[in-house]
Amino acid sequence: MFFLHTRTLRTSLKMYNYRHSSAWPSQAYINGSWCNAKSGKTFNVINPATGEIIATVPDLNATDVQIAINAANIAFQSWKTTTAKERSDLLRNWYNILVKNKDYLAEIVTAEAGKPLQESLGEVSYGNSFVEWFSEEARRNYGEYVPSPIKSKEILMIRQPLGPVGLITPWNFPIAMITRKASAALAAGCTCVIKPAENTPIMALVLAKFTQEAGIPNGVFNVVTASRENTPQIGQLLCESPGIYGISFTGSTEVGKLLYKQCSSTVKRIGLELGGNAPFIVFDNADLDKAVAGAMASKFRNCGQTCVSANRFLIQKQVYSKFIDKLMEAMKKLVMGNGKDCGINLGPLINISQVEKVDRIVNDAKNKGAKILVGGKQAMNYGERFYEPTLITDVKDNMACYTEEIFGPVAVCIGFESEEEGLKIANNTNRGLAGYFYSNDLSQVWRVSKALEVGMVGVNEGIISSTEAAFGGVKESGLGREGSSHGLEDYTEIKYICFGNIQQN
Ligand code: NAP
Q1: Confidence of residue 504 (pLDDT cuts 50, 70, 90)
Q2: Are 28 and 57 in contact (CB under 8 A)?
């Protein structure tokens, strides 16, 4: 197994001038001002396709972030009194600016996250759609009037904003993971402090710049950038601070569990969108061509680095060989390279530790007797963060590829005999984010949809994310839902108001 010398690589990097990089903000955004870390420390942002430095941003610590929390608290006092229509209009302004700049935003996604440009455009459109959606939902944050059982009393329940919230986001969807949270928070009347991932802070800062242009008041939207070294102290501060009333986190289950614990000290509301281990089941009666198309979209989008990515392909015995042959054919058509170039549909992994993780999982399978039918190693001729699209068969439940979220371009295939056995394997995991299956039997479609222990099901479909639908998981994949008409719930409290001594006629 190869070993990558991460430190040596980092120090040998040189600064690279990206086409529009001079227009990227390079400071944190607190209370409507651009600022550096008090310590003066910074960290570099790397283009994962080339390894070049594309920006340098401030490395904030807990002391800096306390200033952002204070600003969010002051701003909350006036933001919470704005009308839903006023917040809706400001979010709409923001949305219009985002749409106008969609190409510029997609270029940033490709530069800092490595996605092929077409995919980046798709993410930008998905990310922007949350701002549009919550600009509309702001006005539908209804309360409830409930008929009272007592004549002299009336019952009313209203929804009020939680207060300033902390939003912690991952690198795999640099725009969408922020807009999905922040636009819901702002629509509800909350202010926010956003901590983007170390690998993708540029997008967060550009989003901040556009909120400023949209007229969103100072202190409502704050972005605190930090290196992986400083992140834990910032996470702890956000979770334990009495000035933060809710946390919304998207990322790994391991970090989610830590934040959940930290939030207990202030009994803080927490929304968690965590890791998955999605089964993708192909039944004997499925349309195999459609199943392969769905498998390719689900598995290889963002080089397999999506939380809803198919992690285990479960294929019924009668179609097992045929499906694998077709999948191999489709995989051969993938074009790897720098996502900014035309025709590329498979970019790099985000960083060296992700490459090491994927390689460890593939080698573990190899060593325990699995067959590697396609790929199986780093694609060094493209760069050190590229990994060959890989197909593994003869997988057993003691292999890491069976139990762990791979987060890479590795398709793991497992055969099964009956529907019952397929479901047993699918549900044999402590994760439960997405699940997919292909079947043309209507009764089976209902049975399996209900039996899968996941928050989201794709029936004859490999791409399921949509602003209008509730996104979230069960088991150790998370708490709460984002997007949809439920997306405001994480940011509001229900207040019951009892009107007494009412004189009825
Ligand atoms: P991660 O390591 O958990 O990081 C996610 C975010 O948490 C980053 O901003 C990271 O900052 C921060 N973080 C790390 N340690 C922290 C700590 N101790 N306290 C506070 N914040 C901390 O996850 P990742 O590797 O970036 O993302 C991949 C994972 O996210 C996968 O498991 C994937 O399934 C999951 N994900 C889930 C969803 C969903 O909606 N369910 C969507 C996308 C991704 P640094 O970057 O500075 O470490």
Answers
A1: confident
A2: yes
